[in-house]
Amino acid sequence: MSGDHRQFSTVLGKEQNGVIQPILTDLYQITMAYAYWKSGKMNDVAVFDLYFRRNPFKGEFTVFAGLEECVKFIQNFKFTESDIKYLKSVMPTSVEEEFFEYLKELNTKTVTLFAIEEGTVVFPKIPLLTVKGPLPVVQLMETPLLNLVNYASLVATNGMRFRIAAGSDSILLEFGLRRAQGPDGALSASRYCYLGGFDGTSNVLAGKLYGIPVRGTHAHAFITSFSGLSELHNRQLVRKGTDEMVDFIPLCKKWKKQLAPVLGFLDDQVSQSELAAFIAYATAFPDGFLALIDTYDVVRTGLPSFCTVAMALHECGYQPRGIRLDSGDLAYLSNLVRQSFEKVARSFNVPWFSSLTIVASNDINEDTIHSLNQQGHSINSFGIGTHLVTCQKQPALGGVYKLVEVNSKPRIKLSEDVEKVTIPGRKIAYRLFGHDGNALVDLMLKPDDEPPAINERVLCRHPFIESKRAYVCPAKIERLHKVFIENGEVKQPLPTLTELRSKALCSLKSLRIDHRRALNPTPYKVSVSSNLYSFMHDLWNCRTKTVSR
């Protein structure tokens, strides 16, 4: 690698995002690396945990995302010559040339990555990643790894909350590209919203890069660009399955007259510009006609124009998709539209018309969907942008990366805020399930602890509150932490995005409903073994006594 052109290898056939590189870091990581080097700590073996302290959005679960990019980052970790040249310009002139040579030669062959599988529902204090290796090397990884995990997990969790609100039968489409925080933020949003349970995106590049289904129709500008039927130069539509060309405009006029008494609209109230736009779009996409009907007036012109063109398409052998509402009272309008669809279905013996798609957009957030559910609505697809990709309810996850061991000796960070006290040493987490298949508790153990066994009682202790403890007799046990990188090799497969989406939805189902609910969810229990509890508190007391002397 040389110059400014960074060539990345692939990891298990998957390319790395070129922005993700060792120099994508905070300066203090470089200065700490220099201080470690100058102190002769280059070969100290350190263990860091990456975890978060609180679930986002006042909820009680988080969807872990970003692991694949973490794996690729660690595998391809390498400072380039241009990186070194730049670092020389920002570090003090007193920094020895040998340090920059040291940075240039760094690699991750001796780094081990333990991680929970991506797409798993996770909880506070449980390490998502545990990174073991030379102290300066694994210290340098802190900022990039946090950057890769924090937003990915936040927006995936946000997506999953929208999925819970909308229900499993609704189609959820991510429309956030234009409102996202820059191009890379938009791509990450599309990718991880899909992992979090969305069905598609409007982002074409995300579709190309990640294989996400892309969806979209037209904007209000398309409607307002037409002034009348005289602008339609293409009047012809081939009848499906034949070579017969149909003059589509007279056919639409015929259906407008037939529909007027059924839907109760007046012929002269229908906007000719809107009807022209719908005809133009339908002839361009006869198999995918889904129209935005609120440009002027939904009831007086948008809905009649759609039904007119939809029935004309049906006569030519095509089946329209539905409509989109982007303003107004979404509950009321969606119900009115559905009732109109049902009238058309009955009047013309076209049963499928009653189940046409109704898409709602218009700055929708999670609370909007819950409100619509309470009101009663007929929407079966939501297009969601700003509130989804920007995570307006909570802009950051708050993940942290803490040192827990050096040269096999535990390290603990103390604080007057108990939430910020770290759990020392490397740990292995298990998820214990009840006989109903629901997850009961996550249990952290020391690596030398006896792992829990099915149908055998195990004591689960709160990490910090002595009186909180319970015996659990699990019907099923899942080891959460697996070795993903060891001796320079990736040890686990990296699933496709579609597989990760399925895993996330399945993992969520293992939680009780009261853990998932939006309002006042029940906290999920995270515990430690009796041995780890004693180990941690003995170290805590020892450090407290040392400080007080």
Automatic annotation (TrEMBL):
Keyword Electron transport: no
Reaction catalysis annotation: 5-phospho-alpha-D-ribose 1-diphosphate + nicotinate + ATP + H2O = nicotinate beta-D-ribonucleotide + ADP + phosphate + diphosphate
Family, as annotated: Belongs to the NAPRTase family.
One GO CC term, this protein: cytosol
Any one Gene Ontology molecular-function term assigned to this protein's record: metal ion binding
Residue ranges of domain Nicotinate/nicotinamide phosphoribosyltransferase in the record: 322-422
Post-translational modification: Transiently phosphorylated on a His residue during the reaction cycle. Phosphorylation strongly increases the affinity for substrates and increases the rate of nicotinate D-ribonucleotide production. Dephosphorylation regenerates the low-affinity form of the enzyme, leading to product release.
Keywords: Ligase, Magnesium, Manganese, Metal-binding, Phosphoprotein, Pyridine nucleotide biosynthesis, Transferase
Biological processes, Gene Ontology terms: NAD+ biosynthetic process via the salvage pathway
One Pfam assignment: NAPRTase
Cofactor(s) the record lists: Mg(2+); Mn(2+)
PANTHER family for this protein: NICOTINATE PHOSPHORIBOSYLTRANSFERASE (PTHR11098:SF1)
Protein's recorded name: Nicotinate phosphoribosyltransferase
Top-level taxon: Eukaryota
Pathway: Cofactor biosynthesis; NAD(+) biosynthesis; nicotinate D-ribonucleotide from nicotinate: step 1/1
Segments forming domain Nicotinate phosphoribosyltransferase C-terminal: 426-535
Free-text function comment from the UniProt entry: Catalyzes the first step in the biosynthesis of NAD from nicotinic acid, the ATP-dependent synthesis of beta-nicotinate D-ribonucleotide from nicotinate and 5-phospho-D-ribose 1-phosphate. Helps prevent cellular oxidative stress via its role in NAD biosynthesis.
Ranges where the Nicotinate phosphoribosyltransferase N-terminal domain occurs: 24-150
